[in-house]
Amino acid sequence: MEMIRAIIADNQKMFITGLRSVLSNYSNLKVEIVAVAQDASSLKELLEIHTVDIVILELNLPDVDGLELIPEIRAKHKDLNICVLSNYSQTKFVKQAFQSGADGYISKSNDFDDFFKGLEEILEGNTFLGQGLRITPANNFGGIKLDRKSSSYEDRFLIKQKLTTREHEVLELITQAKNNKEIAKELYISDQTVGVHRKNIMRKLGVRNTINLIKFAMEHQLV
């Protein structure tokens, strides 16, 4: 049986330890975890050093979220298999991951049988969608709603998905204490457009003034 070489990209240490243990005892595939990356920059460096068959990727990484990372990896490593194994089961993330170049998407809440089936399918050249996941919204006629219920607390990954690319740019400059005119000059847009973006950002993040906006952005590591 041919050895499968893999990199895990995840920053949850206990989960990584458990995954290593389970993979080492799986008889249908021989999987060697050649490295573990706890952030996107480490993963990119490791992929330059190691020749691997598959990356097992969590979307919520501390420096760059996985949805931005997938197309970058795919552009440089066209033959690499990318399996998303994530806490996030929302339809929009699943769809975006596949559009970005992922070969499979599995929820961490699923059992290991689903994970192993996914690995086998992906390594055979197929795409794989884990149990309970969708790439199109469920209908409203008694269908099962698969997205998790929102809570009063949302983590950094989910919060970042609320903002557009331009809003991220404006937010970063706001946290540098720049006013609308300075931001407009740097981004080559009008003062009025900056004002609209500022209002939209505050509305989406649920804050009412610039001081609280900067505090929120720093606390949640949005910039």
Folded structure, characterized:
This protein has 10 helices and 6 strands; from the N terminus they run βαβαβαβαβαβααααα. By secondary structure, the chain is α/β, with parallel strands linked by helices. It has 2 domains: 3-129, 3-Layer(aba) Sandwich (Rossmann fold), CATH 3.40.50.2300; 162-219, Winged helix-like DNA-binding domain superfamily/Winged helix DNA-binding domain (Arc Repressor Mutant, subunit A). It has a 6-stranded parallel beta sheet with strand order 2-1-3-4-5-6, with helices on both faces. α3 (66-76) packs parallel to α4, α7 (165-174) packs across α9 (191-205) and α8 (180-187) crosses α9. The chain is elongated. The termini are far apart.
Low-confidence stretches: 139-154
Describe the strand arrangement of the main beta sheet, using strand numbers.
Answer: 2-1-3-4-5-6
CATH architecture of the largest domain: 3-Layer(aba) Sandwich
What's the helix-strand series? EHEHEHEHEHEHHHHH
CATH topology title of the largest domain? Rossmann fold
Number-wise, the strands total 6
Shape: elongated
The average pLDDT value, as a whole number, equals 86
Count of DSSP H/I helices:
10
The percentage of residues in β strands lies in 5-15%
Distance between the termini: 46 Å
Report on the biggest sheet.
6 strands, parallel
CATH class of the largest domain reads: Alpha Beta
Helix content: 40-55%
Give the number of domains: 2
What is the CATH superfamily of the largest domain? Response regulator
From the alpha carbons, calculate the radius of gyration and give it in angstroms. 20 Å
Secondary structural class: alpha/beta
